[in-house]
């Protein structure tokens, strides 16, 4: 090493500080399919380590290099050969067949780390596991002088469900692009692969639509409580979608319709049946607004919005809302849903929507998002029977805006109080009558922001519950166990500390 001009650490180095008591491959959240710890196989990360990136692995290798640099101070080279130096090798292809599209295998040995996957997504998700094998100080933003040992062992891993989502409501309170990027990085570490952005609601419209400029110039200027609001220009939104993609996260944009539309209807008189713009609303009532179902202008509006939105959306899905349309007559609701779906299809997009859309018998590619608190919802089971995959966000389990206890300073309680154990202890494959494992698209944890304004607020509600939903979405059912999960969860807390995540210290977990 000295001949390479690199610092040499005398002493026993890595063996002087074994990783195994603090962290192990068996501690990873979400729990891997198979993990075998080997305390004698710790890898010592040093300035001489090379990140070896095979074909197609360069983006993930650069991401890893960027993750490791601030705390270690090491400028690890990303190379296609390791030249006999100790290496973290990222290899695409030749992975165990079981790992599929998003899985990976990870081997940490004394002489190097090998991560293999069939896709760049798999490598990225494997890197998230690797990060958890390093000391929590690895996430520090400034150089920490210490040894960096990667806990030894091997992992074979792949997800239970393909859709593992988080939803952020940027309509009730606006979150600027940097705030959303912060949340993206926080969720990516738990292998969340979908970010659903709730871009419009009664209190605000947050995405620039060039053919209807007042949606943002007027409808984007308000928020719950009368705050100043905000919106994303199409350029900013595109940048956000790209940032998410760099974290292997697909963005699904939601325009909520035919209810939750007061911001649009206060911006444009023609969107109201009586052709009078409604007053701005910044209270938190729901279910009072409705687009005008039998007026052709409504569908010109939807067409323009979907056309522009689809052009900003590399993902296959757009979310069309559809919840709590109490001000729309049931027959009008069906008329509306049946007219808007072909518009999405015309612009090459499949739809998702809150579970009410199941009543309109959408095409089998549509994903109804179950958000109710009941265990029996016949129209959702009927959709599953017709071939629709169901996304699970039961409000009394998965809503991150529910209070933990009745003394929680933030959040709501209409779906009940949701402590960390409540949030973890459920199974999407047995939750709803008539919907079984193969009919489940996955799990999404929504965070509604009527009471939430800052990233600290989001963090307090999402942590520690979000990692539990991520685990329900990723890990095999056989690994699901609260008693062992709570111990693994406790070990994440120092990481959140270093990352600046302001979490709720639930008394159900013995935090370090
Ligand atoms: C219900 S759940 C809503 C939202 C609220 C949320 C608050 C759903 C699809 N609609 O409009 O923000 O409750 O928890």
Automatic annotation (TrEMBL):
Its EC number is 3.2.1.52. InterPro entries: Beta_hexosaminidase_sua/sub (IPR025705), GH (IPR017853), Glyco_hydro_20_cat (IPR015883), Hex-like_dom2 (IPR029018), HEX_bac_N (IPR015882). The active site is at residue 324. GO terms for cellular component: membrane. It is an enzyme of class 3 (hydrolase). Keywords: Glycosidase, Hydrolase, Signal. It catalyses: Hydrolysis of terminal non-reducing N-acetyl-D-hexosamine residues in N-acetyl-beta-D-hexosaminides. GO terms for molecular function: beta-N-acetylhexosaminidase activity. GO terms for biological process: carbohydrate metabolic process; glycosaminoglycan metabolic process. Residues 27-158 form the Beta-hexosaminidase bacterial type N-terminal domain. The keyword Transcription does not apply. Residues 161-476 form the Glycoside hydrolase family 20 catalytic domain. Belongs to the glycosyl hydrolase 20 family. PANTHER family: BETA-HEXOSAMINIDASE, BETA-N-ACETYLHEXOSAMINIDASE. This is beta-N-acetylhexosaminidase. It comes from Amycolatopsis xylanica.
């Amino acid at each position: 090493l000295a001949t390479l001009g690199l610092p040499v650490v005398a002493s026993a180095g890595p063996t002087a500080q074994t990783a195994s008591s603090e962290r192990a491959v068996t501690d990873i959240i979400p729990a891997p399919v198979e993990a075998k710890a080997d305390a004698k196989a710790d890898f010592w990360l040093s300035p001489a380590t090379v990140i070896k990136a095979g074909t197609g692995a360069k983006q993930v290798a650069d991401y890893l290099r960027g993750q490791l640099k601030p705390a270690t101070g090491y400028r690890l080279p990303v190379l296609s050969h390791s030249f006999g130096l100790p290496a973290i090798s990222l290899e695409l292809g030749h992975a165990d067949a079981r790992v599929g599209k998003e899985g990976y295998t990870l081997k940490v040995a004394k002489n190097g780390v090998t991560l293999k996957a069939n896709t760049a997504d798999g490598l990225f998700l494997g890197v998230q596991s690797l990060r958890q094998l390093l000391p929590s100080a690895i996430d520090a933003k400034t150089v920490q002088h210490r040894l960096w040992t990667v806990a030894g062992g091997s992992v074979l891993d792949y997800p239970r469900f393909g859709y593992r989502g988080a939803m952020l409501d940027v309509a009730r309170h606006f979150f600027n692009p940097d705030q959303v990027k912060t949340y993206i990085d926080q969720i990516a570490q738990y292998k969340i692969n979908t970010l659903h952005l709730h871009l419009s609601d009664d209190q605000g419209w947050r995405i620039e639509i060039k053919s209807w400029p007042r949606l943002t110039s007027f409808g984007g200027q308000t928020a719950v409580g009368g705050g100043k609001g905000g919106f994303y220009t199409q350029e900013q939104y595109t940048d956000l979608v790209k940032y998410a993609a760099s974290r292997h996260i697909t963005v699904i944009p939601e325009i909520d319709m035919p209810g939750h539309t007061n911001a649009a209807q206060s911006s444009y008189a023609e969107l109201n049946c009586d052709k009078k713009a409604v007053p701005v609303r910044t209270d938190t009532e729901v279910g009072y607004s409705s687009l005008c179902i039998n007026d052709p202008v409504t569908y010109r509006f939807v067409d323009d919005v979907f056309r522009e939105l689809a052009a900003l959306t590399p993902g296959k899905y757009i979310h069309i809302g559809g919840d709590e349309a109490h001000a729309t007559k049931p027959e009008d609701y069906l008329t509306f849903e049946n007219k808007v779906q072909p518009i999405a299809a015309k612009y090459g997009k499949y739809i998702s929507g809150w579970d009410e859309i199941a009543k309109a018998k959408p095409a089998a590619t549509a994903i109804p998002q179950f958000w109710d608190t009941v265990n029996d919802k016949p129209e959702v089971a009927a959709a599953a029977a017709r071939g629709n995959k169901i996304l699970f966000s039961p409000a009394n389990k998965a809503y991150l805006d529910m209070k933990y206890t009745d003394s929680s300073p933030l959040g709501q309680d209409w779906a009940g109080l949701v402590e960390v154990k409540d949030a973890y202890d459920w199974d999407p494959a047995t939750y709803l009558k008539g919907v079984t494992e193969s009919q489940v698209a996955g799990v999404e944890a929504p965070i509604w922001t009527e009471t939430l304004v800052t990233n600290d607020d989001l963090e307090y509600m999402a942590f520690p519950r979000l990692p539990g939903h991520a685990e329900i979405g990723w890990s095999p059912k056989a690994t699901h166990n609260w008693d062992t999960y709570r111990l693994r969860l406790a070990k994440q807390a120092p990481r959140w500390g270093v990352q600046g995540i302001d979490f709720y210290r639930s008394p159900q977990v013995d935090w370090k």
